[in-house]
Amino acid sequence: MSPVRPVFFISDHTGITAEIIGQSLLSQFPGEAFAFTSVPFVDSLEKAQDAARQILAAWRQSSLKPLVFSTLTDPGSRAAVTATGALVMDVYGQLLGMLAGELGRPAVPKKGQFHAMVDANAYHSRMDAVNFALAADDGLATERYGQADLILLGVSRSGKTPTALYLAMHYGLRVANYPLTPENFERPGLPPQLKAHRAKLRGLVLAPERLAQIRAERRPGSRYAAPETCRGELRASEDLMRAEGIPIIDTTRRSVEEIAALLKLSLT
């Protein structure tokens, strides 16, 4: 087993950008073991120096040079982290240098500038979409389906709710979701609530083994989580969706980010 290398995500804001970039890059090295630490809101030199101490302590404890993904914008804070000697991937520092060279003018550091660029209308649109996803979750508020951008179909625990919320938060899309249950498979065709919205329907499926694992975490030892139940429901749901011409996405090995991106692409 590989030794565990410390990895830090450091930012003067939420750290989401650093985490997305870092996790994406590290996923290309499946044989390595990493211990992740997020250090958000490093918005002063004192906090940057404290983050540097954490990095050095992790280095001493693990005996492995830490990896640091940084989106710090303040030059002094970036210098404090770089001085640790860890492998610092300074996303903003490197890219800002390239941009400054091309544009012929220096950057003006401003903490959280990326997030401040999001206008109020976009923010309210996303919050409205989140409220819609919650109101139209799991077959609720079918009378509002006319307002939806997408309606997700799938058996219980196929990933409909987290995907709907992700699409709302990141893309401002209004997404409802409708659960396909054994009762739906007893009658041919789509449930009546869905027939008028066929163009908005998208199906989610996954491997029966994965579905059984997810359901067992919720109801261990139940018929609901039994492999034969999962296989039967998934087969019936996929047969229904294919017969109705509904686009299907297999979520087995995809993250919610990938699923959401594919669904958004399906709208174009």
Descriptive overview:
It is a single chain. With 268 residues, this protein is α/β, with parallel strands linked by helices. The protein folds into 2 domains: 4-116, Rossmann fold (3-Layer(aba) Sandwich), CATH 3.40.50; 120-265, Rossmann fold, CATH 3.40.50. The chain contains 11 helices and 8 strands. The strands form 2 sheets. The chain has a 4-stranded parallel sheet with strand order 2-1-3-4, with helices on both faces. The longest helix is centred in the first third of the chain and has 18 residues, at 45-62. The radius of gyration is 23 Å and the shape is elongated. It starts with a strand and ends with a helix.
Please outline what is shown here.
The chain has 268 residues and is an alpha/beta fold. The protein contains eleven helices and eight strands.
Structure classification: alpha/beta
Radius of gyration: 23 Å
- Could you tell me the mean pLDDT? 91
| CATH C-level name of the largest domain | Alpha Beta
Report the major sheet.
4 strands, parallel
Supply the CATH architecture of the largest domain.
Answer: 3-Layer(aba) Sandwich
The counted number of beta strands is: 8
Give the overall silhouette. Answer: elongated
- What proportion of the residues form beta strands (DSSP E)? 5-15%
**CATH topology call of the largest domain:** Rossmann fold
Q: Name the poorly predicted regions.
A: none
Q: Tell me the helix content.
A: 40-55%
- The strand line-up of the biggest sheet is 2-1-3-4
Distance between the termini: 45 Å
Instruction: Give the topology string: H per helix, E per strand.
Output: EHEHEHEHHHEHEHEHHEH
The number of distinct helices, counting runs of at least 4 residues, comes to: 11
Integer count of domains: 2
